[in-house]
Fold this sequence. Notes:
The chain has eleven helices and 14 strands. The chain is of the alpha+beta class and about 350 residues long. Strands 1, 2, 5, 6, 7, 8, 9, 12, 13 and 14 form a ten-stranded mixed sheet that branches. A two-stranded antiparallel ribbon has the order 3-4. Strands 10-11 form a two-stranded antiparallel ribbon.
Amino acid sequence: MAVLCKPAIAVPEYILTQEDTLELARRLHKDHSQLRLVLRLIEHTGVRKRHLIQPIDKVLKHPGLDARSAVYEEESKARVPAVVSQALDQAELEPDQIDLIVYVSCTGFMMPSLTAWLINTLGFRSDTRQMPIAQLGCAAGGAAINRAHDFCTAYPDSNVLIVACEFCSLCYQPTDLGVGSLLSNGLFGDAVAAAVVRGKGGTGVRLERNSSYLIPHTEDWISYAVRSTGFHFQLDKRVPGTMEPLAPALRAIAKEHQWDAGELDFYIVHAGGPRILDDLCRFLEVPPEAFRFSRATLTEYGNIASGVVLDALARMFDEASAVEGQRGLLAGFGPGITAEMALGTWASPPVAA
């Protein structure tokens, strides 16, 4: 069975604390009629700090979509290779052993995809398949894992590299003053993550089943308005309540596998905000500690979009608490409203004789 190996994560050097964010909101929006609400919502995100690819004074300016696109390309090419190399090392593979690269990002656009540049630059084979995913938002981390699993099921000797590159700060829009937009300004961070799914061998999560679920008629709850100034993030106030309709989907995939979603050993889920995790605890009837990895990602990095599930999984590796055969759930949530879900068991390294 395919095994999801330890992810590699890198966050940029520029740090913005919650105190910095609150002060910026007070200064930039001192006349906003709902400033008190915005400040309270930002305080309740649980985000202690975030990392940015540029200093905050540059982030706050809007030089135009063309300039932002140039920054996205420059920064992705500068930051992705080291993360890819670390992920390959942790999976004990070389670039020429990778058969498919799944690249996910909802914060910038390139054509050809960065996958072509990676193949030409980092020693991947010329027949390496490419799968860029650009429009699943935060759910794309889960989707990438699932498509890698599917590929390794079809081609059992194959290996898949997943790359998530999210520079959310490049989507800041100074003219978007709705409560949802201002809350988003205090929630999202920048990061690059990568992981390998091995068709054979490897230590990590042995992938066993995956599924998708879309809540009907919720397309406009999380969306981009694509304008001449770039991507304008739109967040409906109903989004924090989406776990009520999604929790049954999580229970359903577990039941199909003859598991109980409330009685698993580990949970790696997208941390869109604290309400998401709190509601999952309630609807799945699990203790808050079950989502400690996702909460840590949210606290230390903010919402890093498709990178959240990979960072949360890396934290579970670092805790070194999982043992052979333990059962777990991985899930990413994003626009649609879409859930990408996977079940797996922990695969420990073989014991030396």
